[in-house]
Amino acid sequence: MHRRQLLRGALGTGLTGTAFKSVADILYDVDRPLASTAGAADLVHRQTVAEQHSYGYAGRAPAEALADLIADFADITPLLRRPQPTNTRVELSRIMAQLGGMTAIVLHDLGDRREAVTWFTTAGRAANESGDRALHAWILARHAMVPLNFGAPNAAAQLAEQARRTAGTAPTAAATLAAAVAAVAARAHALAGRRHDATGALHVADSLAESLPTGERADTWFGHPDQKHHVHLSHALTALGDTTRARHSQARALALSAPTSTLTRTLLRLDAATCQHHDGDTLQACEAATRALTDIPAAFRTGLVRSRANDLCAPSPRPCAPHRPHETSPTRSPRSNPPLGTRCALPDRRGFRDLKSQLLLRPVFHRLEHRIRAHVLICWLALLLIRVAERTTGQTWRNTNRQLGRISQVTLAGPAGTVVQTTPLRPEHKAIYQALSVQPPARVTAFDPR
To answer: Does pTM surpass 0.70?
Structure first.
């Protein structure tokens, strides 16, 4: 009532500066709470930002993408603290769930497991408040990847099952992703010989992927295109030891992956190296894994990539053997293929031992720098020849040296003269010379009659 009287008095004197100030103050008081709500244009901007992030890294390093995601996430937080219309609050909660889930994915890729779980939990609450069941199921399914990739497959299976129940029976991307995650998490059953559970989950994932509508096949973090489906199948089949089908999925995923998808392509290469290890070609697997890590910039050697590489090299039990109908036993003894970490370390250790012992790299009996360098270079070249011989013959240098060391040169001297001859070559000796394309020693190397 007091304000009304003041306004009447101010306006009664005409549209003076005092009157305009009073009107402006009232307009400001009204506009301030209105501005605190998110308008249609602001919501469209937030939706656009979330969509831009959903296309993945797009060549950016994970740390750079994380900074952008957190900055955009922080812009929405003040809006949710203020009173908003119901529809606006629902949409803001959905956008916050999307940004929070994508932030958790990047944290997971960076190897920060604890922070990733925290962000997935917050994103799940936001999705639940928005009422978007498909988004909530997607967050749960992506959350399951954290324990899966960091050594807790049973917990991952529980989260994947929760995601599948939340998604319902509709063929959504979240349901397909949950089935794929459950298939990979089922490696715990596979290691125990229970292949049926794992293969059943894979069958469900394939069936759902084939029936996905076009809208769910978008090549984003929220969609489930063929490329992403084969990435998950690659990991699942590799963990199960089905290397033939895993290689098919790896080839399909690589063909469908953009050249800028550095992390995805590196993880596929590590899966391929694991398949080589399962098939018994451990040295080639070690070299392939090393190339996969060294071919990418340091900013992309994130926690997830290191974790996969550690899983590849860790001395863990061998997964269930590939399914072969003509075999009666579904498993092979872990002793048939030693851990890759142990096998990968052997060439390096043996190389240093060969340099120091057989090639006499140390001690160095030289004092001038150029002679020391020449000595080291000659030893390195000798080690290179050793490795070439091992690769060519398929035998260790110790075995080759031992076999060829049994060949002797004998000098026979008598009244008729002197003969220098070589002991007869055994079949294993001839095989080594033939593999190395080296001419074997002649039976008689010198003859001096009198």
So the answer is: no
